[in-house]
Amino acid sequence: MTTQNFEVESIKRSLTSAMNNPPSSPPNNQKKEGLRVLFPTLIYEAWYQNYQAKKESLVSFNHKLRDEDTEGQRISAAQYPNGYTSYYSRTDLYKLPELAELVAFLYKCADNFAHQHHWDTQNFEPVINALFTNINSKFSGHAEHLHPYSHISGVFYVKSEVGSPAISFKDPRMGRWMMPPAADGNRAENTFHANILPDEGKLLMFPSWLEHGVPPNQLDSERISMSFNFEMQPKPKSES
Fold first, then answer.
1. How far, CA to CA in Å, does 48 sit from each of 67, 114, 204?
2. How many of the other CB atoms lie within 10 Å of CB of 49?
3. Quick one: 224 exposed, middle or buried, by C-beta within 10 A (0-12, 13-18, 19+)?
4. Which residues in the chain belong to E strands, given as ranges?
5. Which of 109, 136, 180, 186 has a CA 20 to 30 Å removed from the CA of 14?
6. What's the pTM value of the predicted model, to 2 decimals?
7. How many domains, in total, are found in the chain?
């Protein structure tokens, strides 16, 4: 099966599951005056245990990958100015044995993400389909984008000095941009872009449809991160 056909079949499975299991409306049991929360966008955060002991090897891994990836360097020079990303050349880093411990951490977080969102984890499970590296030298950043053909996306911070640019999430409710009222933009419910600072050893996980970006790095030191995607796939049928 080609990649395109696999993606189409995945979308069909998701739509079929949604039609066969229509969501119920939120319970109408609020008995007091006040605000009701609807359509929240949930971000998962976690920290890699004992990261400082593992940092040097992960930094070295990413530098070695960049130095040996001549194809990725060539494309990055045109598509990713002042930086390097293996997005165009190596997105299968999750298959490498030297990253097995990190990938296990990603799987644990993806499981938590799915469970805490109350997704159908009895019949589906998160399966990683991409892991790639990003090295942002001075003046290198990420334009706003999203991650198609996935359910869960995220970033893991390998190296990030104080003053490194924050990841910026864009409010997905486009209708809000039509006529916004004057409000306290520092509050999460009012902002149009929510910024979260990077932290070495920290993971952020979010819905793949959520647009995000990173402004250019203004520091002389590199900002190294690893991005990833998961898809909720049917669990293998157990043989009776």
1. 26, 19, 11
2. 10
3. buried
4. 44-47, 83-85, 124-136, 142-145, 152-159, 167-170, 193-196, 202-207, 212-214, 223-234
5. 109
6. 0.85
7. 1
Residue 154: inside a domain: yes
Phi/psi-derived region of residue 220, left when phi > 0, alpha when psi is between -120 and 50, beta in every other case: alpha
| Whether pLDDT at 239 is above 60 | yes
pLDDT of residue 122: 94
Is the separation of the CB atoms in 225 and 59 below 8 Å?
A: no
SS3 call for 95? helix
Asked, for residue 178, whether it belongs to a domain, the answer is no
Asked if the structure places residue 24 within a domain, the reply is: no
**CATH code of residue 229:** 2.60.120.620
Report yes or no on 13 lying in a domain.
Answer: no
Q: Residue 9: what pLDDT?
A: 61
Both tokens of 192, joined, read 């149009």
Q: Tokens for 215?
A: 């402004």
pLDDT in tens, 142-196: 899 999 999 999 999 999 999 999 999 999 988 888 888 898 888 888 888 999 9
CA distance 66 to 86: 8
Per the structure, the complete domain to which residue 65 belongs is given by 40-167+201-235
Residues ≥6 apart with Cβ < 8 Å to 148: 208
Instruction: Give the torsion through C-alpha atoms of 202, 147, 119, 1, to 10 deg.
Output: -120
